[in-house]
UniProtKB/TrEMBL annotation, chain A:
Keywords: ATP-binding, Nucleotide-binding, Transport
Name assigned to this protein: ABC transporter
Molecular function via GO: ATP binding; ATP hydrolysis activity; L-isoleucine transmembrane transporter activity; L-phenylalanine transmembrane transporter activity; L-valine transmembrane transporter activity
Entry annotated with the keyword Membrane: no
From TrEMBL, chain B:
Gene Ontology cellular-component annotations: plasma membrane
SUPFAM superfamilies linked: Multiheme cytochromes
Membrane topology: Multi-pass membrane protein
Protein origin, superkingdom: Bacteria
Protein name: Inner-membrane translocator
UniProt keyword list: Cell membrane, Membrane, Transmembrane, Transmembrane helix
InterPro entries from the UniProt entry: ABC_transp_permease (IPR001851), LivM-like (IPR043428), Multihaem_cyt_sf (IPR036280)
Segments passing through the bilayer: 12-29, 60-79, 85-107, 114-130, 162-179, 214-237, 249-274, 286-308
Protein localization: Cell membrane
Pfam families: BPD_transp_2 (PF02653)
Molecular function terms, GO-annotated: branched-chain amino acid transmembrane transporter activity
Native species: Deinococcus phoenicis
Chief subcellular location: membrane
Amino acid sequence: MPEAAPEPVLEVRDLGIHFGGLHAVRDVTASVPAGQITAIIGPNGAGKSTFFNLISGFYQPTSGSIRFLGEDITRLKTHQVVARGIARTFQTTTIYKELSVLDNAMIGHRVRTRAGLLDALLRTGRERQDEQGSRAGAMRALERVGLASQAGRPAGALTQEGQKRVGIAMALASDPRLLLLDEPAAGMNPEETVSLMGLIRELVAGGLTVALVEHKMSLVMGLADRILVLHHGQKIAQGTPAEVSRDPTVIEAYLGGHAHGGQMGQPGQAGGSHA
Amino acid sequence: MNRAAFKPGPWGWLVIFALAALLPLLKPGGYVLDIGINIMIWAMLAYGLNVMLGYSGLLSLAHAGFFGIGAYAVGILTLKAHWSFWLALPAGVLISALGGLLLGLVAFRTRGDAFAIFTLGVGVILQLVINKWDALTGGNEGLNGVPPATSLLGIDFSKGANFYYVALAALALTVLVVARTRGSVFGRSLVAIRGGEDLARSAGIDVYTHKLRALMLSTAIAGLAGGVYAAYVGFLGSSVTGPVTTFTVLLYLLVGGVGTLAGPLLGTALMYGLTQSLKGLQDYQYIVFGPLLVLLVMFVPQGLAGLWDRAQARRVAARTERTVDHA
């Protein structure tokens, strides 16, 4: 593990959001280094998914700032955030099941095209160009996740793991610099999890930066370069897996008052997360 | 791909419109032409609704109001300002599109059921405004004596048979516009929004802008239908611009098949034709109508055109399933 962390692609400062009186995320200052895998862990309800929703512009933070590649993106809308190069997937396999695998990926590529309604009506050059560009961009994304041969199938006909890959392809089609994966291994058996870990490593080897929320500690410990630990919406630790697993605050958070909430080294309660 | 929704395909549509264009040559009675023109006008309004409900997944219930805006724009511009119909019609379409933009700026702060209820309210308000603004719309008296379509390129379009071609051309344009939208990069984004707004947003689609454009297209089509109606009927009253009209046409759309290209025309032709042929029964027609609708909703909830699409999709799926299993 190199001591000096690479330049961060993402930096959040004092980030917070409260819904009514509930502080879902509070004063989180953290960074995601380029070209690495950062895992965000914490007991159920720690604010991990909310943290993702803040970064991707789904929620507007009530305090703090988010910088991506040196640019302040705190107030941007989701599609603008995606255009800057941050793509995400969801906890569950949230994809368009009734559409083809290719269509799913093409939807992810939309942010890289400009053709609008008038282009559609007048069949302009831009429309034809964008249509071809979408197709090519979507196919590239499908190749990266190994689904190119399944392009024509309805996405809902794929296995759980296949559908996860469709979701990742949809995110990749937007040509991101940073990929946010929300519990990528949820609902997967061990073989599928290993295969997915391989895919994530390949993507990072290709130059992508990945941040993921995950309950499966085997995956986190085996994959992550750095770990950010949230508890009750606050950051309690950040560091390498070795550092974090020795951290007394982390051990306290996992084993102390929350022994039932997904222990270190063990998968969390299935489907129990609603951070 | 989405091509399944294009049935009956570009050639099929050409045949349908060619056959429709031959109808006046058979010298049918005025009654048949009247039915034909009415079907085309209401089908256009159904296409306008379909752009929202079928392609974007948004139920907008203000559409008869925009039909009214298009109709009254053409009526007022030709009757009071003495514009040519051929200038007034595009003006009416433009005004309806702008109206859609204004509606969207406010209405898209709501989602789902709230959006439907909000637009229903707007529909009621539009009808009230048309009904009460005596100086502009003639209020309760209506707008009497809207001139028929004028000559264009030396052809007199005012007569019944010739006006039939005006309506046919407007319908053909509508189908072309909708088909192009559906098959485009823009249209795919609408499908994504229909499938799940949050997912579309996180996939990077500018949901708000796409919905706004779709609504403008949708109200523009409603305005086109209204403009053609104004010149055809010659009299405008506010009753046609209310929610009852919206729900009637919504019914046509549901019967024909929401989200399909053929559905609006199919449903309108069937239901309008049926209404006309059952008119002799007066109030008793609903004894036939009611059970028929119940049966349709129970057994063909996806509409008549949807039935075809579904069968097609099942064949395609079965075929790909086989080839993939062998791989």
